[in-house]
Write a structure and sequence with these properties.
The chain contains 3 helices and 7 strands. By secondary structure, it is α/β, with parallel strands linked by helices. It has a 5-stranded mixed β-sheet with strand order 6-5-2-1-7. Helix 2 crosses helix 3. The longest helix has 17 residues. The model has no long low-confidence stretch (mean pLDDT 90).
Length: 157
């Protein structure tokens, strides 16, 4: 699983139907936008193992000192403030350009299994007490964000 975690002042996601009409819009004010996708390796492993990995990550995520504190140092945890989280699925996180002219998505996970893992991730965040909003798995979306810092982390779990 690969995540891009961004500290944002605000972020929103609009989800669209096939006809172009808006289906859903979610917005957060402060603070965390996460782009999430699952690798081919993850979708081939046992779901119980995957769920355990997600649980360990969310526990660690709550303790990581990666956000700005009152002194503007990257020393605060997400639990210090209980910020909102917006999670957006993004299959392009496992893209490769080894062929130079065309992106290769062969390392992205199986769509149906990836959706199960994505839902596990959302559920674990919510169970940890966070306000979690999300886009639509596999949906056509437009994401807007105002990055703070910029503070961005690329993490594989």
């Amino acid at each position: 699983m690969k995540l891009i975690i961004q500290n944002v002042d605000s972020a929103s996601v609009e989800v669209f139907n096939d006809d172009g009409s808006q289906q859903k819009k979610e917005k957060i004010w402060k603070w965390v936008l996460i782009y999430f996708w699952v690798s081919k390796i993850t979708t081939s492993e046992d779901l119980t193992l995957t769920e355990q990995r997600i649980g360990k990550f969310v526990d660690k995520f709550q303790m990581m000192r990666w956000l700005k504190d009152h002194d503007w140092r990257l020393n605060a945890t997400i639990n210090d403030i209980k910020w909102e989280i917006l999670v957006v699925s993004n299959f392009t996180l496992y893209a490769s350009n080894k062929k130079w002219t065309k992106m290769d998505f062969s390392q992205s996970g199986d769509y149906k299994k990836a959706e199960i893992v994505y839902e596990m991730f959302l559920k674990k965040l919510k169970e940890s007490g966070f306000v979690v909003k999300s886009g639509e798995f596999g949906g056509m979306m437009k994401v807007e964000s105002i990055n703070d810092g910029p503070v961005n982390y690329v993490i594989e779990i």
